[in-house]
Write a structure and sequence with these properties.
This protein has 428 residues and is an alpha+beta fold. It contains 17 helices and 14 strands.
Length: 428
């Protein structure tokens, strides 16, 4: 006995088949519209705005309410698919005789599912991805009409979906820094520069102020007892717009002097009491998180803070620019020299300031930012790296090697490493 027997095709069955085909076309159009509309880039949307046609205006109106557009497409697609299943089942039932209900169920299920998946979902979406503007313009006006027709259903769908989403995420809004960092690493739709900025934003949540501050020995400051001419000389030499003011030594910071406060009195002599223009200092602990420091800068409207340890001794200075550079990279203005912290001696040899950050050195050398992570410990500068590796104070001409890079101490100032020669051995 045959499993399936064909009974012929009358006018009624032919009408059902035509209806099934029309429903399949509608399903394909719905799938294509979803893929086309939601794959439009900002450049594609600008293209639509410039066209000025009825179809482009309709498309822009639909995109203005994307949630309603998606709900309309989903309602349309589901209604069409349900209707197609019913009509195709009726046609198959009239045109074929099956040996059992199981055979009928399997034949109908496989046949209809194949049609829907291949011609109603996969092929239309693949086509729409490559011709999204054409498909958008073709279907925008019919969809605008259907949006109004299906408004009650789409409104209910949006409200119900939104409420379920709120309940599902209630009390579960926390995301760890590790998860956020992983999400940034997996991002593929951004440029390398954008990825660096995103990583910088994530990074400042885990870094402390001491990691980015200007160390105590590099702070330029003015003494409270200096004459006005001496203060102007220090300001000109430093090039900074704000300077700390100390009494006796750098551990006793009395405040901050702003260059803009001194400008109206620039012609005054040494008898001018510039000390009355000193502003209150802003102190922060060494272990304060950088993102918290940024919030304080914003709320308190300050741009510079003195970093102190648990005993109140000055350890460094941090500015708003230091925090921003952690996110966007080195910020240079017209007065900065891009190569002020290093000099290239030959193809494989460079001369760096000891206080240069390790990451800045690696970028100059065009090496991976994480190359020295296993040996740098808590060191942030090249000088600190050498001390971390050597585990002892170094003298002039002492050498340290790590990962194919040879470091030679070229200049010292007391116990401080002033200049370091960096030689790339692997490229020699």
């Amino acid at each position: 006995m045959d499993l399936i027997t064909f009974n012929g095709c009358s006018a009624n069955e032919a009408m059902l088949l035509v209806t099934t085909l029309l429903l399949l076309i509608c399903s394909a159009a719905a799938s294509a519209s979803e893929s086309a509309f939601f794959s439009l880039t900002p450049a594609d949307i600008r293209n639509l705005r410039q066209r000025g046609s009825f179809s482009s205006e309709a498309a822009l109106k639909l995109l203005g309410k994307a949630d309603r557009l998606l709900a309309t497409i989903l309602v349309l697609n589901n209604l069409v698919n349900i209707a197609m299943v019913i009509v195709s089942a009726m046609a198959i039932d009239k045109m074929f005789t099956f040996s059992s209900d199981t055979v009928e169920f399997l034949f109908t299920g496989v046949f209809v599912t194949f049609l829907l998946l291949l011609f109603g979902e996969i092929l239309p979406k693949v086509f729409a991805q490559g011709a999204n503007i054409r498909v958008t313009l073709l279907l925008s006006q019919p969809l605008l009409l259907l949006e109004k027709l299906f408004y009650p259903l789409s409104y209910l769908l949006i409200r119900t979906g939104g409420r379920i989403g709120e309940l599902a995420t209630y009390g579960n809004n926390d995301i760890s820094i590790e998860e956020l960092a992983d999400a940034v690493d997996m991002t593929t739709s951004t440029t390398s520069e954008e990825q660096k900025i995103l990583s910088g934003i994530v990074g400042i949540t885990s870094r402390e102020v001491e990691d980015i501050m200007k160390p105590r020995m590099d702070i330029r400051a003015v003494e409270h007892t200096m004459s006005f001419s001496e203060v102007k000389r220090v300001i000109i030499e430093s090039g900074y717009s704000r300077l700390p003011v100390y009494d006796d030594d750098i551990d006793h910071i009395k405040g901050t002097i702003f260059v803009k406060d001194l400008l109206p009195h620039i012609a005054c002599g040494d008898d001018f009491g510039w000390q009355r223009l000193i502003r209150e200092p802003y102190f922060v602990p060494m272990h304060k998180k950088v993102n918290s420091m940024l919030e304080d800068f914003q709320s308190d409207k300050v741009h510079m803070a003195i970093v102190v340890d648990e005993y109140g001794a000055t350890q460094g200075l941090v500015s708003l620019e230091d925090i921003l550079e952690e996110v966007v990279g080195e910020i240079s203005d017209e007065s900065d020299n891009d190569e002020s912290f290093y000099r290239r001696l030959n193809e494989n040899t460079y001369l760096f300031d000891g206080k240069t950050h390790i990451v800045d050195m690696l970028r100059v050398l065009e090496l991976d930012d994480e190359l020295l992570e296993d040996v740098q410990g808590r060191a942030e500068t090249i000088a600190g790296l050498l001390l971390e590796i050597n585990r002892n104070f170094l003298k002039k001409d002492d050498e340290v090697t790590a990962h194919g890079i040879r470091f030679v101490v070229s200049a010292m100032e007391g116990r401080r490493i002033e200049k370091i020669k960096v030689i790339l051995q692997n490229n020699e």
